[in-house]
Design brief:
- The N and C termini lie far apart (51 Å).
- This protein has helices spanning 3-33, 36-52, 61-85, 114-120, 125-136, 141-148, 152-169, 176-192, 195-201, 226-235, 287-300; strands at 202-211, 223-224, 245-251, 254-261, 264-274, 277-284.
- Strand 5 (264-274) and strand 6 (277-284) form a beta hairpin.
- The chain is globular.
- With 316 residues, it is an alpha+beta fold.
- Helix content is 53%, strand content 15%.
- The protein has 2 domains: 3-169, Up-down Bundle (Butyryl-CoA Dehydrogenase, subunit A, domain 3); 176-300, Nuclear Transport Factor 2, Chain: A (Roll), CATH 3.10.450.
Length: 316
């Protein structure tokens, strides 16, 4: 076999090895960063490094690629923490579509829902990495210790602290079916400006957070409390009706509403709920965070909600 043929064969093998694990690499980076755009940049960087690496010295391509991804995401997470300290308004994760082909490579849904990603933001990057690798991808502790270059005992402590933080920070969630029911009722009440129905659906200490990133007009601090949030939603009821279309989508493995004006998405909204009712309403409004999910929605050609529609959100 000629040198050129050998080179082509080696390239094909390296490409196949990368393509096979690419969804997992994106899944790791996204959960570490809460940003689809930054996760894609990490994966691209990993591919470039993989092309120039000495692959003959790599015994396990999947482990090598996952390790490279995690370490690059760790470095970026450190700088992201400082950037978000000066972020304009509330920071919320960038929504990713999980209908059909989710491109997240998850064996488990852990650290994918918006509420969990927000809690992970409060962890150190190393704690977050340990939790993601263990809870979302079921990596053995000894492999995580190699990735993070620390002892297995320390990894167990990192995961334990992260689990405790997530458990203490999140209320007992309702079933997926109940969350869909609450969200459907919320959307109908919001469109109708039904103040009484909104108050019945909301927990006493509910919060409504909007991420406009200083680019679009949005509340810069969360609106908190049942009466205040209900009045706020009722006051903007026209935003759910006039000149916009509402489309049920699945984002981060949970029901969400994409609000569009013409062909442009202006917001993606979702909720978190407990037995007391809806306790967090999240509005992703920064245009850069809506670009990918808006493009996918158009390509799938989903049906929109009509003003009197009782269309149910997608099964997740």
């Amino acid at each position: 076999m000629q040198d050129s043929q050998l080179a082509n064969t080696a390239h094909d093998d390296s490409l196949a090895a990368f393509v096979e694990v690419r969804p997992r690499l994106f899944g790791i980076a996204y959960r570490m960063l809460g940003s689809s755009a930054e996760a894609e940049d990490i994966v691209q960087d990993v591919w470039l490094r993989w092309q120039t690496s000495d692959r003959n010295a790599v015994q396990n391509a999947s482990a090598f690629l996952a390790t490279t991804t995690t370490r690059l995401a760790l470095n970026l997470a450190q700088s992201a923490r400082s950037r978000r300290e000066t972020y304009v308004g509330s920071w919320l994760p960038e929504p990713v579509a999980t209908e059909g082909d989710p491109h997240l490579g998850a064996e488990r849904a852990a650290a994918l829902e918006f509420a969990v990603l927000l809690l992970l933001e409060k962890l150190t990057p190393t704690e977050r990495a340990a939790y993601v690798l263990r809870e979302a991808f079921d990596y053995p502790y000894h492999e995580i210790s190699e990735v993070l270059q620390t002892s297995e005992a320390n990894v167990r402590q990192l995961v334990s602290r992260a689990r405790k933080h997530i458990s203490n920070g999140r209320r007992t969630s309702v079933s997926a079916a109940e969350r869909r029911r609450l969200f459907t009722a919320f959307v109908e009440a919001a469109r109708n400006g039904d103040l009484e129905q909104l108050e019945r659906l909301l927990a006493s200490d509910v919060a409504s957070s909007a991420d406009g990133g200083g680019i679009v007009r949005a509340t810069r601090t969360p609106v908190v409390g049942r009466e205040r949030v209900a009045k706020f939603i009722a006051a903007i009821a026209s935003h759910f009706r006039n000149g916009v279309t509402l489309t049920w989508i699945e984002a981060n493995a949970q029901p969400a509403i994409l609000i569009s004006r013409g062909t442009d998405a202006v917001a993606c909204a979702t909720i978190d709920a407990s037995e007391e009712g809806i306790h967090h309403i999240m509005w992703m409004m920064r245009p850069s965070k809506l670009a990918a999910i808006s493009h996918l929605n158009r390509s799938l050609g989903r049906a929109h909600l009509e003003p009197t529609s009782s269309t149910q959100p997608p099964e997740c």
